[in-house]
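WARN retry 2 of 3 for item q-0093 after timeout on previous attempt; input resubmitted unchanged.
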Amino acid sequence: MAEPDHRAVNLSNWESRVAHHVTGYGIDRLLADPHALSYVVSFDRPRLGDLHGLDVAHLQCHIGTDTISLARLGGRATGLDFSPSALAAARDLNARAGLDVVFVESAVEGAVDALGAERFDLVYTGVGALNWLSSISAWADVVVRLLRPGGRLFLREGHPMLWTLSDPRDDGLLVIEYPYFETRAGTRFREVKSYVDHEGDLAQPETVEFNHGLGEIITALLDRGMQLTQLVEHDSVPWNPLGDAMTEGDDEEWRLIEGADRLALSYTMQAVKTR
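OK item q-0093 returned
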């Protein structure tokens, strides 16, 4: 078990980010064009396939920009998050966009009770989600229970090697400082800024985060009857985790300026429920 206060600490942190993210997530662009997608879902789109007619659960949906993008691709989307402020922003965005996405308040561990078992054809999890969960096995249980037989998991996430790295060094070396494998207590961080530009500091800058190795994630899914159908590693990630070592492309993805072939920054994993 993780330290008992980790969820409360992280919830307070995410509540303090919402106002900054509402102004920094490109909502005006999404509202100006009814066909526009978030940059994250735009990156995912070639691998997502046709979502028309599918019941889609988006876990850890935050303020809903990716969730409404999944709906614009034809999915009957439901977003789930533990932050009341984020869900209020998501529901406002949904109403202004004229969509009928449903947003539900719950921690991931309570998702089956909140949403219902075997209700979904697709469970979608976006970048920067798994590191807030203390147990990858518990997460895999939730995914499998939410999916109908034959249903699919779509996961794009920051690479577990990226989460191990220290802040950039002046000599450009990438140095491992933090755990690669899941630990019981997690790792505590203090960051006064979020990952979007904003004025002022976060009201609650403390977090507790958990890394999960690729092998741990894949094994948790295989042990529960999921069949791995895709694993692609990418040289980019949709935020800047390494400061001056990175540059932003036209696709809103960040890549290493030098030696991009040294490190996978994110990955896409897909799996199908076989039983």
